[in-house]
Design a protein that fits this description.
Blueprint: H1 2-25, H2 38-42, H3 53-66, E1 70-77, E2 83-89, H4 92-96, H5 98-108, E3 123-129, H6 137-151, H7 155-163, E4 164-169, H8 174-186, H9 227-236, E5 243-250, E6 256-258, H10 273-294, E7 322-329, E8 335-338, E9 341-344, H11 345-365, H12 367-387, E10 392-395, H13 401-413, E11 419-421, E12 425-427, E13 430-432, E14 438-441, H14 447-454, H15 473-476, E15 481-483, E16 489-492, E17 510-513, H16 520-529, E18 535-537, E19 541-545, E20 548-552, E21 556-560, H17 568-581, E22 587-589, E23 596-597, E24 605-607, E25 613-617, H18 623-637, E26 642-645, E27 659-662, H19 672-683, E28 687-691, H20 693-700, H21 725-730, E29 737-743, E30 757-762, E31 779-788, H22 793-800, E32 803-810, E33 813-818, H23 829-841
Parallel strand pairs: 3-4, 3-5, 5-7, 25-26, 25-27, 27-28, 28-33
Antiparallel strand pairs: 1-2, 2-4, 6-7, 8-9, 10-14, 10-15, 11-14, 11-16, 12-13, 17-21, 17-22, 18-21, 18-24, 19-20, 19-23, 29-30, 29-31, 31-32, 32-33
Helix pairs in contact: 3-6, 6-7, 6-11, 10-11
The structure holds zinc ion.
Zinc ion binds near residues 132, 135 and 248.
Family: Belongs to the peptidase M14 family.
InterPro entries: Class_I_gatase-like (IPR029062), Peptidase_M14 (IPR000834)
GO molecular function: carboxypeptidase activity
């Protein structure tokens, strides 16, 4: 009895809320009564709670179950195994022909195919929401918008179903969303607390913006370091949507932003001007109309950047579509005070709902126009590529098969045509060998992505960067590359096979593995984990191997058959298995007496200690850098890393570890006794790997004693207009740019590198002088180091006089300082090994 009474009551309440909610979000709209609204399904009005991701998916499953106009598919999984879903909505006939519609759209984007009749093609609209987990209004808007498209009875809703195929991604970052939603819901007060200081509005470190590994997924459409973006971009290329949205939140005191972005300064150099000058203003009129209707304030053409190709709103601009970024004031929590009064969660959701509808209306009104633009985009790409004087880019690293393979696969993931290089080729200082290098012609539909991969940009319309100003991916992968008009393309590469090496049979004195391959550190760690004793040969030598005389570089890994704790047969089985799994070539030697150079028992050969790594994390520490390190060690080395909150450092016994990592940050919360413990541990042999501002903290503690580069500062004008401060001060930052550095190839930090010059990525203003000890600055900048991205003249001068990597010895231990970021965004495969060398060979460095 009680049960029945309750359910009648809840039905009544739900109906009441449904009425008020519908009126708030969709005034005047009628809905198909067979389809439950989100609040009817969830049992609470949208805006009352942060909806858990599994419930978002459940609502979409319900729509799929009830309506023939809906299809829900899973395109992949996040790190934490949440499904990545796409909800497709269209009228019955379009749903019945969905695959044909998709193929026609792909044909439209392919200038080698006849152009389909665009008057017959529905608009392909991709509504993407929630890439930043703690900007939660957009995923709630995704529930309401889906409901409106499926069940709305207005003329516009019917037109949307007839004239478009809508593809909804409710949450690009489900892991981050749930992290934040849990926080906001579990700190909610009754009544709600609008005070910005309340715990509800102030998430704990690292917050829900990022994914599992603390990466900003709204930077990952280019690097594709994570499954969320890998599956997304793969999916994107199956559709080439005409319009793609990307919904965000900004400060609570702000209003609403939609494109156009700031002219020139924040635009991407490869995107056709038509996108910015013609299409964006057309769409902006729709957004303005809808926002004027509800009286919500907004702005355009300021602040937000649209240049970095890894944004979810910029990648579509480089693929013949229109990418659109939207930002609403945030209630961050359910209700928060602002200069305009209290901002409710529902208010922020409604802003995104109306702009979702505005996007749909603009897309169908301009359906044929946007189709023609998509075609024109790829046709002009091929034509411009044909005129590009580079004609071809050739690339390949002679010594690192795995990194080559990763880069070729990366280009293929972005649908770039890649060919084998048919002949040995010399361009400048680089030799590109047949079989170990590849050719990318500029005359191809993905020409604009080819430029993104291989061009350095140094000239900018503006000097303030919201983000990176350089993204040359060939440099990030550490690929030797060059424009080579005369290169001969061979067979087109469709997939990249992993090499298989034959394991040398017969009795061995020792086995050798070259350190050049990207996955050599992974193999080494697996050998150590299997209990195998491994040494490193610190000087070059030549040995007689199963393949005759072979030259080995310093840094070659040796597995001696003596000094092992496991049986010979077990060792060989493990070694064979690990080498095979990681594509490592193993050399066998039968004697320690080398043909030239040092012998295998020299004093310049040392045991490699198995890394036991601890990293400090928490407030004050850069979660991005810490996340990059965590992700690198997990995914590229398979090495566990203990992440300790700075609060818990007092409980740490550093002598249980041999390597401490300090990502950028201030560690001021560490107590004096903790700092004394750290000093003692370093003195007795510990290795600290320190990034950028962490090195300044170490200096302040007297743990190191390095000096900043001091230049006479250029006199600045005594007074400047108030309104110019952002531009003037912003120009002094190093937002993210690429420099050529020079390696000391004899130093352990450079093991595995065969070429002296290496591009490095910098996004800090910390310029530290080379070490006073002339042997301890193994990476410096070249004389003219600036390769790409923005830097002021004054900063470039300081950079030239500073160190990229330097070592500060202390007692029996040392600090290895990195002033560039060797692991930036999981994209800098070319410099990862410098960082891993500091972990594996720290104790060989002084
Ligand atoms: Zn955002």
């Amino acid at each position: 009895m009680k049960k029945i009474y309750l359910s009648i009551l809840s039905l009544f309440l739900t109906a009441q809320f449904a009425f008020s909610q519908t009126e708030y979000y969709f005034p005047g709209e009628k809905f198909d009564p067979e389809i439950p609204s989100p609040e009817e399904f969830l049992g609470y009005p949208i805006g009352d709670w942060h909806t858990r991701y599994d419930l978002i998916v459940k609502y979409y499953e319900k729509l799929d179950e009830l309506s023939d106009l809906v299809k829900l598919e899973t395109i992949g999984y996040t790190h934490e195994h949440r499904p990545k879903v796409i909800l497709t909505i269209a009228n019955e006939s379009n749903m019945a022909n969905l695959e044909a519609i998709r193929q026609t759209q792909v044909q439209l984007a392919d200038p080698t195919q006849p152009k389909p009749n665009v008057s017959q093609m529905p608009s392909i609209v991709h509504l993407g929401y929630g890439v930043h987990g703690n900007e939660p209004s957009s995923a709630e808007a995704a529930l309401l918008t889906a409901y409106w498209i499926v069940a709305g009875q207005s003329e516009l809703a019917q037109r949307v179903r007839e004239e478009s195929v809508v593809l909804i991604d409710p949450t690009l970052n489900p892991d981050g969303r749930d992290r934040h939603s849990l926080w906001a819901n579990s700190n909610k007060g009754f009544p709600p607390v609008a005070d910005p200081l309340d715990r509800e509005h102030n998430e704990a470190w690292p917050g829900g913006r990022t994914n599992h590994y603390w990466y900003d997924l709204n930077r990952d459409w280019l690097p594709l370091a994570h499954p969320e973006s890998q599956t997304k971009v793969q999916w994107y290329h199956q559709w080439y949507p005409n319009v793609t949205t990307d919904f965000h939140e900004m400060g609570t005191n702000s209003t609403y932003f939609f494109e156009p972005t700031k002219p020139y300064g924040s635009e991407n150099p490869v995107v056709p001007r038509k996108n910015y000058d013609e299409i964006n203003p057309i769409f902006a009129n729709y957004f303005a109309k809808y926002m004027d209707e509800i009286g919500s304030l907004y702005w355009t053409k300021e602040v937000f950047d649209n240049s970095y190709p890894g944004y979810g709103s910029t990648y579509p601009d480089i693929h013949g579509g229109l990418g659109l970024v939207f930002e609403t004031a945030s209630s961050r929590g359910h209700l928060q005070a602002s200069q305009r009064g209290d901002i409710s969660f529902a208010f922020t959701i409604r802003n995104h709902v109306v702009n979702s509808l505005a996007t749909l209306e603009a897309a169908i009104d301009n359906r044929e126009y946007m189709h023609d633009y998509l075609r024109e985009f790829f046709e002009t790409a091929v034509a411009e590529g044909r005129k590009d004087p580079a004609k071809n880019y050739v690339f390949g690293d002679e010594y690192d098969e795995s990194r080559n393979r990763l880069f070729v696969q990366f280009l293929l993931d972005h649908q770039i045509d890649v060919y084998e290089n048919n002949a040995d080729l010399r361009v400048g200082n680089n030799t590109f060998k047949k079989g170990k290098s590849w050719v990318v012609p500029t005359a191809q539909p993905q020409y604009r992505m080819v430029r993104t991969m291989f061009e350095y940009v140094k000239e900018f319309a503006d000097s303030v960067f919201y983000d990176a100003s350089a993204w040359t991916m060939a440099a990030a992968y550490g690929m030797p590359f060059a424009a080579a008009p005369s290169a001969q393309s061979g067979v087109e590469v469709k997939e990249v096979a992993k090499p298989v090496f034959e394991f040398p049979e017969g009795k061995a004195y020792a086995y050798l593995i070259d350190w050049s391959d990207y996955f050599a550190p992974k193999a080494l760690y697996e050998l150590q984990k299997a209990g195998i004793h491994v040494e490193v040969v610190n000087r070059p030598f030549q040995s007689q191997t199963q393949e005759g005389a072979v030259d080995f570089a310093a840094g070659t890994i040796m597995i001696p058959m003596g000094f092992q704790k496991i049986k010979d047969t077990e060792l060989i089985d493990q070694l064979k298995n690990i080498a095979n799994k990681n594509q490592q070539k193993v050399y066998k030697v039968e004697t320690g007496l080398n043909l030239s150079g040092i012998d295998l028992g020299s004093n310049s050969v040392g045991a490699v200690q198995q890394p036991k790594v601890i990293m400090l994390v928490g407030p004050g520490v850069s979660s991005y850098e810490a996340g990059e390190i965590w992700h690198l060690l997990d995914s590229k080395v398979g090495m566990p890393i203990t992440k300790v909150n700075t609060d818990d450092f007092g409980r740490v016994n550093l002598f249980d570890y041999n390597t401490l990592i300090l990502a950028s940050g201030n560690y001021n919360s560490l107590s004096n006794s903790a700092v004394e413990h750290l000093k003692d541990w370093i003195q007795r042999g510990g290795t600290v790997v320190s990034l950028k501002s962490a090195s300044l903290w170490l200096n302040r503690q007297g743990i190191t004693n390095e000096s900043a580069v001091e230049l006479e500062e250029k006199a600045e004008p005594e007074s400047l207009p108030f309104a110019s401060s952002r531009d003037f001060e912003g120009a002094k930052a190093v937002g993210g740019s690429i420099y050529m550095a020079e390696l000391d190839l004899t130093h352990p930090i450079a093991y595995g590198y065969q070429m002296k010059n290496i591009p490095v990525y910098r996004n800090s203003n910390i310029f530290i002088q080379p070490s006073k000890n002339k042997y301890l600055t193994p990476i410096r900048y070249t004389e003219n180091p600036h390769l790409g991205g923005y830097i002021s003249d004054q900063n470039l001068e300081k950079l030239k006089q500073s160190a990229s990597v330097l070592i500060s010895p202390s007692g029996r231990g040392r600090v290895v300082h990195f002033f560039d970021n060797p692991n930036f965004r999981g994209a800098w495969f070319g410099t990862n090994k410098l960082f891993l060398n500091a972990i594996f060979f720290g104790n060989q460095m002084d």
